[in-house]
Fold this sequence. Notes:
- This protein is α+β, with helices and mostly antiparallel strands.
- It contains four helices and four strands.
- The chain has helices at residues 34-37, 47-59, 80-102, 132-138; strands at residues 28-33, 64-73, 109-113, 144-152.
- Strands 1-4-2-3 form a four-stranded mixed β-sheet.
- Strand 2, helix 3 and strand 3 form a beta-alpha-beta unit.
- The protein is elongated, with a radius of gyration of 26 Å.
Amino acid sequence: VARQPAPPAPVARATPPAAAPAPTPPPTRVVFSADSLFDFDKSIIKDAGKQNLDRFIANLNGASYESILVTGHTDRIGARDYNLALSQRRADAVKNYLVQSGNLPAAKITSRGVNGDDPVIGPNECKNTAGNAAVILCLQPDRRVEVEVNATKP
């Protein structure tokens, strides 16, 4: 009697590796000179500042947001408490503009003021500048608003 061949042994099949999640892109940081957004010692956004923010908003069109951090900075001229409050008012003004004019999600935007705690100009710079106007001009890079966006675009 002829024997039937034995059925083939089962073959283990390798399962394809799971696709690795797409890496999260690094945050995008945009720095606006405070002088381009506000008058000196003010926190109301100027018309030219609104145009700058409108261009920024247009560049974010279609992005999926994780978070947005708006940080206001001042220079070292004046009292720390005053500058801290001014830097916070400026950060809040930019946040409010992004929400109201750009329809960005308010719940995902944090604003904070940091006074002059993260200066661009070193502590030994601007010391030999004669006159208040010259010091104000020298410290201009310290007065800024940084917007850090964690988002992905399709």
